[in-house]
Amino acid sequence: MNSKSLKGLALCASILGFSIPAHAADTELKIFVSSQHHPEVWRKTFDQYEARTPGVKITIEPGGNTSEAQAQYLNTVMSAKDTTLDVLMLDVIRPAQYAAAGWTSEFQAKDIEKFLPTYTEANTVDKKVVAVPAFADAMFLYYRKDLLDKYGVQPPKTWDELAAAAKKITEGEGRPDLQGLSFQGKAIEGAVCTFLLPYWSQGKTLVENGKLNFDHAAAVKSLSLWKSFVDNGVAKKNISEVATDDTRKEFQAGNVVFAINWSYGWSSFQGKDSAVVGKVDVARLPAVAGGDQATCLGGWEFGVSAYSKHQEEAKKFVGYISSPEVSKYMAVNGALLPTYADLYTDADVVKAAPWFANALPVVETAKARPVTPRYNEVSETIRTTVNAVLAGVTSPEEGATQIEARLKRILR
Ligand code: GLC
Fold first, then answer.
1. What value does the mean pLDDT take over residues 7-33?
2. 118 CB within 6 A, ligand 1
3. 10 vs 262, which has greater pLDDT?
4. Is the pTM value of this prediction over 0.85?
5. Following DSSP, what letter does each residue of 10-49 receive, concatenated?
6. What spacing in Å lies between the alpha carbon of 337 and ligand 1's midpoint?
7. Tens digits of per-residue pLDDT, 123-164?
8. Is 90 exceeded by the pLDDT of residue 26?
9. Residue nearest to atom 9 of ligand 1 (CA)
10. Does any ligand 1 atom lie closer than 6 A to the CB of residue 346?
11. Parallel, antiparallel, or unpaired for β 297-304 and 87-91?
């Protein structure tokens, strides 16, 4: 019996004065999906789930385009114990906070064993599995292979090499609208990673065993590096207004030589609206001279809302959308990095994104942002300061002092 005739039957029954229990046909699961990460491609996997699970209907609640915009929305919904969301796609920085707030329900240990260990760890809080991985992520250096070849330039290994290469190419091309480097300077979550990349590259850590381990000189050097790119024309003057997807769009339009971005951009660069099809390659991010190449661990997770009225159905659904089958589908069709090690060298995956074949060690050695229930405050401190330095409102020296003072209070 289909759901229409079931509803008809329920209506007749209620007119006759008795009720029949709702059939599984009426289970509607609402999933909160990041708008930046190809919701239209995720939708196809949800359709597949609906097709194989009669009686369950999946609807998408679109999340905002940046991680912190989504966090703001979810904070309101979850604080109100709202029951409308069943599954939440969460940035990797959130599970600890959500677990502390009691907003996600627990999975079983066996649900998490098969994933990349980095993500098993990120989703396990106090020995409890609070979410399961949706896709992996890290920051990479996208570059215009055609332009580097034209000027005989190798992908840079240090930030100084990058600045020199960017200058050579932009001056050679003589196009005022061609940017040497695009990165995230807006006060968004991505700017936390902007700060940390050169900081980590100097061999420093921010937090050790839950305690602040701030290196003032390394912080000044990081902030000065980014500011120098603005001052010497490697990056555009208003980089303080640039968010992740702005970098993606400007690179896609052919107006950027080097771009720092996450994996999702790749599929857009291959698409029909792209001016750079066949001209792009991807490398590890450069290092501070004398330091190590470092990148920021990203990724998104599926949590089941503690307030969902469909706990079992929601977990079953998450079981499917976190499966190797779906991880592969999202890698091939949305360039989202797989959460299973062997998919990085899968023939179909490598055909769609050849650079994934070398991406596994980058993800495995990527560094995590601090894990703390007070992450929102840590993030806000760093991203607003990075933004103020790039806008020229605060000096790198003052910026480092402010970050240190505020983080000391937050992480004491
Ligand atoms: C990417 C990463 C995520 C990060 C965000 C910052 O989506 O996967 O972890 O926080 O970018 O903009």
1. 62
2. no
3. 262
4. yes
5. HHHHHHTT---PPPGGGEEEEEEE-TTS-HHHHHHHHHHH
6. 12
7. 999 999 999 999 999 999 999 999 999 999 999 999 999 999
8. no
9. 298
10. no
11. antiparallel
Closest ligand 1 atom to residue 66 Cα is: 12
Ligand 1 center to residue 316 CA distance, Å?
26
More confident residue, 373 or 118: 118
Count the neighbouring beta carbons within 10 Å of the beta carbon of residue 311.
Answer: 14
Cβ of 137 less than 6 Å from ligand 1 = yes
Residue ranges and CATH numbers for the domains of the chain are 3-130+298-365 (3.40.190.10), 139-296+370-410 (3.40.190.10)
Query: From the alpha carbon of 36, which atom of ligand 1 is closest?
Result: 7
If one residue of 262, 263, 266, 330 were mutated to test the ligand 1 pocket, choosing by the most ligand atoms within 8 A of its CB, it would be: 262
Buried b (16+ CB within 10 A) or exposed e, 361-373: ebbeebbbbbbbe
34/390 Cα distance (integer angstroms): 27
| pLDDT digits 0-9 by tens, 195-217 | 999 999 999 999 998 899 999 99
> SS3 breakdown of the chain: % helix, strand, coil, rounded to 5?
50, 15, 35
